[in-house]
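Sample A.
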Amino acid sequence: MSVSFCYRYRGFILLLTFLIYTCYHLSRKPISVVKSQLHRNCTGLENPNNNSNSTTWCNWAPFDQENYKELLGGVDDAFLIAYAVGMFISGIFGERLSIRYYLFAGMLLSGIFTALFGLGYYWNIHQLWYYVLVQIFNGLAQTTGWPSVVTCVGNWFGKGKRGFIMGIWNSHTSVGNILGSLIAGIWVNSAWGLSFIVPGIIIAVIGVINFLFLIENPEDVDCTPPQHHNAPVEEVATSADSHCAERDCGIEDAGCSKESNEKPGAISFLGALRIPGVVEFSLCLLFAKLVSYTFLFWLPLYIVNVAHFGPKEAGDLSTLFDVGGIIGGILAGIISDYTNGRATTCCVMLIVAAPMLFLYNSVGQNGIGSSVVMLIICGALVNGPYALITTAVSADLGTHKSLRGNAKALSTVTAIIDGTGSIGAALGPLLAGLISPTGWNNVFYMLISADILACLFLSRLVYKEIQAWRGSENRNRGYKEI
């Protein structure tokens, strides 16, 4: 097939996978917007039913209790724990099943369970176990998304300028959050069930489009697969051969293969962990995602409680955090491509994010102007490293030279990194629910501590990148002297 057609296919795949994961995040966002409606400040409000015995006309049982923050945190955690556990398993399935079928099933199930949460409004369900159970199944269904789309994009795109390309592509996370907030905000004050049902329908419809049009591999349409490394093919092969010669090879050993003509198989969990950098970036993402998902699930309620906006206005204002996330993800990709320092880029942004979070909590609610500016800045600094690790870094490690082009490893590596990060995503909202009754200041102290810990886990990799820069400068100086 001609080069122009292959480039068109690449653009189409980038657009389709962008749309697919936008829908995954779109369907996760409504719960954060609806929280402030499930438990409202009913003081001064008149019961339209004139029924003094009704306990649900203002608040929605079982979230009408004094411990409503803990209950809402429990609902969040049901989703996030299931997502974290399922992610480690999902990568294994993602390597062995058709991506197109796997995504179709996952998106259809995600749509069903998202809609079922909203149907609780119309079915007048007030049992906590129902909402927890729906969130558990939804969390498991949503694990089908990330390993699949990253693997598909990795199949179609090489390593050159990967940070920039994936920085733009990864804005689907923030775009999905923004659309989810805006869609949920339309019905949050009138019929909050539709805030879930409509996103559920959207992700299911896009799942059908994925089933009809997704192309998993360039070879399926006679396009040439991209080179995964910037180094010449001979250099990569030599490096891989020497790597395998140093120790016993096999699928267990990070994907090495003794026979060069043998088709690579799926990598094992332990083999993926042996890839240099996987453990460090996974632990960093645990704390970075803890911060990001705390904002994802609790920011609208924080704005309602501190700035005293209504549920819809708080949901709309919270989208600015995701606008900042788009900017931060693109900047992180560009900077890391230019400097060839993924770890250093992440670490610098995480360090700067800590004081910015403190300032947002201190002065960010003093006026609409300061709130807008601080939300965008905090969103860029918090989501920039998170976006870089889950996209460009995961793709780099999943196509590491020790794997000798075994693209099947990409799904497992992505699942390990994002699965570890999802443990933090589960801890963040849970801790926020437990700590927020003692004051929002304590929640922000927890988030600042998490950012610092995330940076510390990258310290060894940052040191190696600095050493590599110094070595490169010395070589360049030597060439000039010659």
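Sample B, a different protein:
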Amino acid sequence: MTNLPIRKVLQKLDVAGRMVRWAVELYEFDVQYKPRGPIKSYVYANFVVELSSVATHQEEAYFRWVLSLDGSSNQQGNGAGVILEGPNGLLIEQALRFAFNASNNQAEYKALIAGMLLAKEMGAKSLLAKSDSLFVTGQVTGEYQAKDLQMVAYLEYVQILKETFAVFKLVHVPREQNDRADLLAKLASSGKGARQRTVI
């Protein structure tokens, strides 16, 4: 579907030169003209997501260490999925089950803190962290204000940990681009095969 003037080519065979040859070539494939119609809003949303994923891939090339994280809280328990990718193909995946109650946002913060501590332990100097939690990402980047005392405490600890890296950046990614960490977090919160660890 297009708004280009191809309709004239398909319906008028008396045009000159190359257009006639194109009309004959296209005629054998039974190509039909249909107007495009209005552009739906989801097209713009997909475009924005595509642009953000390109920017994220460019940032990944700059940072030597990339952290993907997700937290999960449900009736079965609380946990976090942490994936740390380093130079020379280094890959560390952890499913951490927390031995205490936590909300989903607290689990997200705990996943970030656990990942930052792991990266620090591995000697990372520049770290790009990716989370699908808009809440945590917004608070750490300063777009959202932390009001709950527990969230303020987590945020302050993350700010302290940020200072241990020469370069640190936390970006929000769509859930589809964070599926491995999400799977680890769900595995941890279900209690199946996850290592128990308390963060903070």
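Observation for Sample B: The helical segments are 6-11, 18-27, 41-62, 104-121, 134-141, 149-162, 179-190.
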